[in-house]
Predict the structure.
Amino acid sequence: MTKVEYTDIEKKYGDEIAIENINLTVDDGEFAILLGPSGCGKTTTLRCLAGLTEPTEGTIEMDGFDVTDIHPKNRNAAMVFQNFALYPHMTVRENIEYPLKVHGVDKESRNERVQEVTEMMEMPELLDRDIDNLSGGQQQRVALGRAIIRRPSVFLMDEPLANLDAKLKMSMRSRIKVLQRELGITTLYVTHDQEEAMSLGDKLVVMNDAHIQQIGTPDEVYHEPVNRFVASFIGSPAMNFVDVTIDSDGVLRATKDIDEFEYRLDSDVADRYTDYDEFVLGVRPPYFTVNTDPVDNAIAGTVEVTEPQGDQQIIDVIVGDEDGESIELTVVASNTIEADRGDTIWLTIEDTLVHGFDPQTGDRIGKQETVSRTKASQVATERSTEGN
Ligand code: ATP
């Protein structure tokens, strides 16, 4: 069982900074997900722990022991790659037992461990098959089996599901989650897929542009994003952002010249923004309420597109003049709401769940987290029972 600690890790390739100022602790048995867009430095962060990439600065410790200069073979970290990296000329059995063979484990113990792992991965019948004759999902199970057979201290996975189709991805996702819990092995898992990250990990490490932006539980990064990047990267459909002004009565107006975008915030919520004349308003699509008749204090818009999603629908709404200044908002509403292209609808906002971001730095303004999370679950419950 192993605790991993990165301290001030930096990796440069020439003048290019791949990762910088990486400070991260992954506790014993924890499942941490490195999440971020392509090129943000996730793989480099993982490879530094495996010993496959040498950091330019900083230290990495495993259980308090500095492993920064330790050879990869001596770190007891097992890595699973996107392309599985299996040996195509070997059978399933030979692939799985390979790491034990390399470490000189005797035949009898090897057979026992192969049996144990293949039962765990539910594939004993595949043992004598050639790798070439396996499906993508089966190959990924072999790759996982090969990684766990050594009973590693740390499990490193680099987009292990990226090459699988959607259905297989879902079933492998739950398999990995259960396996990780059962084995209790400290795990770092790289993905650029926020849905995958939210469903898998205990701890999300959101990265962008070579830096860690936020570390938190899936719930925290969703409800308490530290900045606009995290707010936009987490959640689907993505959060709506509107540049607004705020007056002393707490009335928001779009900075674009759009008469329809005027909304009075509750005074408690408006108080968060007293230091600002302008900020960036952030509203997640489910936190609008759609009204098909005019209501007080609502933003009028025109339905552009509706997209049914089972018992919900995604509605794209244009506020303002399509030929002049306008803002597009994405709203999630119950499918009981009748909204067709061209219809006018009136949007109200779940005030306590809005976010405000500093227009210059992009940092979130104010602290509304506790209210926000309690209110969010209340809204979700109300909607599931009433239908929006
Ligand atoms: P992806 O999701 O596309 O794999 P990533 O978030 O894992 O991306 P990294 O692969 O860690 O990102 O790359 C971070 C940055 O470092 C990128 O700009 C990349 O081009 C650069 N980089 C990575 N490896 C090397 C290398 N061996 N030589 C030069 N630059 C590299």
The longest helix spans residues 166-183. The radius of gyration is 25 Å. The chain has a mean pLDDT of 90. The pocket of adenosine-5'-triphosphate is lined by residues 13, 16, 18, 36, 38-44, 192 (CB under 6 Å).
